[in-house]
Amino acid sequence: MSNPLRLDHDGGLAVLTIDFPPLNLWGDEMWAALPAALDALAASPPRALLIRAEGRVVSAGVNVQHFQRLDEQSSLVVWQQQLAMLQTLEALPCPTVFAAHALTLTAAFELALGCDVIVAARSASFGLVERRVGLTPSSGGVQRLAALAGANRARDLVLSGDIVDADTMREWGVVTRVYDDEAFDQSARDFALDLAAGPPLGFSATKQLVREFARGGVAAADAVMPALAASLFPTSDAQRALAGFVEHGPRHTAEFEGR
Asked: Name one GO biological process term (predicted).
């Protein structure tokens, strides 16, 4: 079985590339490779993670021939494994960025929705089109889209099977940055590299606060914020950055080590 993923490193940035031509379809290969790759990243977290794809599409969806082999029990196992994989991605302490340069359908879009940030090329488009095969998105995409764009928009997109452009997804709050096509790859990498240079402990705390808010609203985040914020002050990163700010002002450059 060929590996549809490639993992490279650019300093503290891990780059996970989907490269399974011609259409980067999800199937047995991807269902096996993604959990393994993310488990490895969880065991040794990078400073930031960029997920991107090669080819003329990010992904044209799932290989429907693989669906034909599934029954209720075997599909239950697949969806449990894929949901656990998405939760592993969400639990990474580092910033995660999904870079969509083109058409991003079904499982690939659901993977993107598990990242902290989705950036897109201006010509990119997105869809959850499982209605065409009588199914519903089953890797966590419906509920995550509803969390970002609202329940009404999530229902509309999934029930209609529409494919939506990057600018609309930005209006909905799903995509946060849209770059021109010609500069997209470099712009997405530069953004991810900037995150990789940031404060790992501060970023991890930010992600924990957002997770608490998602679970229980403002009150849940408020309950953990004071202790979480206070835990950052004795760290070497914070002490060094604060001293640099006092000495050199807001334009100072700090190097963070995650301790």
From this structure: fatty acid beta-oxidation
